[in-house]
Amino acid sequence: MRLNYSGMESEMNTVTTSIIRQTRTVERLIQGVATSDGAGVSLTRVLTGKLQRRLDPYLMLDAFGSDDPDDYIAGFPDHPHRGFETITYMLAGRMRHRDSAGHEGLLGDGGVQWMTAGSGVIHSEIPEQEDGVMEGFQLWLNLPAKNKMAKPWYKDFASADIPEYVTAEGVTVRVIAGESNGVSGAVSREVTEPIYLDIHLPAGTSFSTAIPATHNAFIYTYRGTTTVAGTQVDVQRMGILSNTEGGDGITVSATEPTRLILVAGKPLNEPIVQYGPFVMNTQEEIHQALDDFRGGRLA
Ligand code: MN
C-alpha cells in the first residue's frame, strides 16, 4: 500500500513497515560542540566541518534548545548564504524569517523552513517570543556544483503540512524529506535524494525504514535513548551509521519514550570549500562570493 498525504489527517492511518534484511550499525558516536552563532545564540554544533566529507552531502547540523531567552533572543540578524540549502525544523518556539528575495514567514512548533540559497540570499532569523522554550535543528544540505548558482527558493511548512504516519506499534514518523515506508515527505530533491525523518518511539517499541545503500546516514537522539544493532545512542548524541555492504535500512528501538531524527543523503563526491556562510567547490568561487557580497551583488 502506498500512501501519499497532502497533510496530516485527523484520523491517522497505520502504515505497515517494510522488512529490513540487515540494519546499518553505528560506526561512531559524536557529541556535539557547544558554540554560539548569529548575534549570540547558544547552540550545539553536532555535524562540524571535519565530518562534512564523511557525511556528504550534509555540511552542518546545529541543535538548539533552551528555555532561557538569553540563549536565543538575539537571533540571527541579516547574513548571507550561497551554494547550499538550509533546513530549519522547529520543535518548539517561533522564529521570523525575512530575506532579500522578499520572502517572509513565521516558523512555529513542528514547522519546517526549507531554503535553497543557490546563487545567494541575505536573510534574518529572529525569535518571535520573549520567553518559553526554543528548540529545534538547522541542517545544511549541499547543492551539486551544477545547482550552486541556481535561483534561490524558499518554502515554509506548517506542522500540519508535514506528512506523518503511525506504525502498528504506535511509532509516529514525520517525513520532512524523502520517503519512508511508502509515505512521501514534504520535500524531495534529485541528486542528493535527502531523507529526513523525525521518529517518536513509545517505550518498548522498534521501527524500521529503508535507506538506499548509496546514502550516507546518521541519527541524532533528542529524547530518551535509541538502540541500533546493540549500540546505544544516548540523548544529545549523533550516531554515524555504517555504509557496510548489505545494509538496506535501519532498525531502531527504545526501552523508554525516545525521539530522534534520521538524516540520509546521496554523496555528491565533489570538492567542498567553505568560508563561513558560503559553500562552493573552489577557492575562486569563494572569492567571487565575497566580492559579490561586498559589492552588493550576492542577492
Ligand atoms: Mn541563515
**Which of globular, elongated, flat, extended, rod-shaped describes the shape?**
globular
Strand content: over 45%
Q: Let me know the largest β-sheet.
A: 8 strands, mixed
Low-pLDDT sequence parts: 1-11
Tell me which CATH architecture applies here. Answer: Sandwich
**Integer average pLDDT:** 94
Q: Pairing-aware structural class of the strands and helices? A: mainly beta
What is the name of the CATH superfamily?
Answer: Jelly Rolls
Overall number of domains? 1
Strand order of the biggest β-sheet: 1-14-15-18-25-20-23-2
Folded structure, characterized:
This protein is mainly beta and 299 residues long. The protein has a single domain, classed as Sandwich (Jelly Rolls). The protein is built from one helix and 27 strands. The strands form six sheets. An eight-stranded mixed sheet has the order 1-14-15-18-25-20-23-2, with no helix packed on it. A seven-stranded antiparallel sheet has the order 3-4-5-12-7-10-13, with no helix packed on it. Strands 6-11-8-9 form a four-stranded antiparallel sheet, with no helix packed on it. A hairpin with a 2-residue loop joins strand 21 and strand 22. It is globular, with a radius of gyration of 19 Å. The N and C termini lie far apart (45 Å). The N terminus is likely disordered. It binds manganese (II) ion. Manganese (II) ion (MN) binds next to strand 6 and strand 11.
